[in-house]
Amino acid sequence: MADLKERLLLPKPASAFSVRDSLYKPAASGWLGVDVSGLKKRGQGLRSWIRVDANGNSQEMEVDKFTMMRRCDLPARDLRLLDPMFVYPSTILGREKAIVVNLEQIRCIITADEVLLLNSLDSYVLQYVVELQRRLQGAEVGEVWQSAGPELSRRRGSMNFDNMLANAYPDYLPFEFRALEVALETACSFLDSQAAELEIEAYPLLDEFTSKISTLNLERVRRLKSRLVALTRRVQKVRDEIEQLMDDDGDMAEMYLTEKKRHMESSFYGDQSLMGIRSIDGLLSVSAPISPVSSPPGGRKLEKSLSISRSRQESVRSSESVVNRIEELEMLLEAYFVVIDSTLNKLTSLKEYIDDTEDFINIQLDNVRNQLIQFELLLTTATFVVAIFAVVAGIFGMNFPVPLFNDPDAFKWVMIITGVSGLIMFCLFLWFYKYRRLMPL
To answer: What does the pLDDT look like over 224-249, one tens digit per residue?
Structure first.
C-alpha cells in the first residue's frame, strides 16, 4: 500500500522549500505577509516525465512546459497534443529536433538522444518503457559482440561471427526509429487487443440476439455497435497517419534526427576549424607590411571557395544518404501499416457481421409482420362471412308477416342455405388471394 501511494503521489520538487520560504516573508509593517506575485508562474505546467536515454537508462523528472519547449525546440501547439486533459486524434509529427508521437496511451517526444514520455500508471506506458529499455540494452550488447567479432573469428577461424551477429542483431536503425517502432508496436498491440476483446464479446451476443429478440439484447447490441464505431475510428486514424507518412518523403526525411544532428555537428566543427584558420591567418598578417593598394587576399578567396564546395558536397551527400535511407523508415512504417490494416479488417468484418445480423433480424420481423397481416386478412374475411348471418337475422327479425314463418322446416333451410352461401363466399375469397399471390396457400 505504501508503494502504491508513493507511485500515485508525485515527488516533491527540490525547490519546494525555497518556494515555501519565499511565500511567507515579513512585511514592512511587521505582519507576516504572503507574496503571491510569482505563485502562478512558479507552479505553471509542472508535469512528471520519464526520460529514457540512448543507453536504456530511465529516470523521472518534473519539467514545466516552457522548459520542455526550449529543450526540444517545439512550439506550444505540439506540446498541447500530449496534454492528457484533452483528447486528440493519433498524430506523428516530425520536427527539426524531435518527433512528437501521440498514439493512444503513448504520448512522448523522441529526440536523437532521448525519449521524454509523460509519466502515467497505464500498463501500456510501462510496457513501452520496459520494451524500449530492453531493445536499447540488447542493441548495446549486439554492438559489443559485433566489435569483438573479427578478433574472435580470427581465433576460431572456422566460425563466421559477423554473419551470426548480423542475424542475431538485425536492428541497425537509429535511436529515434527504434523508439518510434516501440511506440507503433505498443499502440498497434493495444488496438488489436481491444479489437480481440470486442470480438470475444460480440459474436456470442449476436448469436443470442438472433435466437431471442428482446429489449435487453437490443440495448446490448446498441452499446456494442457504438463501441465498435469508436474503436474503428481510432484504428482508422492511426492507419491514415501511417499512410500519410509513407506517402510523403519530405516528412520521412524530416524524421532522421540522428542524421541531421551529425550534419549540424560536422558543420559546427567545420566552422570552428575555419575560425582557427582565420585566427592564424590574422596572426600571420599582423607582421606583414600594409600595402597602400588594398586587394582581396588569395587566401580568403580560396578559403571561401573551399567552404562553399565542402558545404555543397556535405548537403548533396546528406540528401543522397537520406533519400537512400528513407526506404528503411518506409519499410518500418509499412510493417506496422500491415498490422493496423489487419486490425481494421477485423473490425470491418465484425461490423459486417453486425449488419448481417441486423438484416436477418429485420427479415424476421418483416416475416412476422406479413404473417400478422395475413392472419388479419383471414380474420376480416371470416368476419365478413359471419356478418351474412347477421343480415339474414336482421331481415327475418323485422315486424311484418312472412308466409315462410308458417312452415316448421323454414328455419332449418334458412340456416343451411345461409351457411353454404357463406362457405362458398369464403372459398372464393381464398381463391382470389391465392390468384393475386396475396397469401401463400
So the answer is: 999 999 999 999 999 999 999 888 88
- Grid cell, residue 205, equals 451476443
Q: How far apart are CA 92 and CA 102, in angstroms?
A: 6
CA distance 438 to 374: 8
Q: What is the pLDDT of residues 329-382, one digit of tens each?
A: 888 899 999 999 999 999 999 999 999 999 999 998 899 899 899 899 999 999
pTM exceeds 0.70: no
Q: Which three cell numbers stand for residue 105?
A: 496511451
What is the 3-state secondary structure of 186-242? Answer: HHHHHHHHHHHHHHHHHHHHHHHHHHCCCHHHHHHHHHHHHHHHHHHHHHHHHHHHH
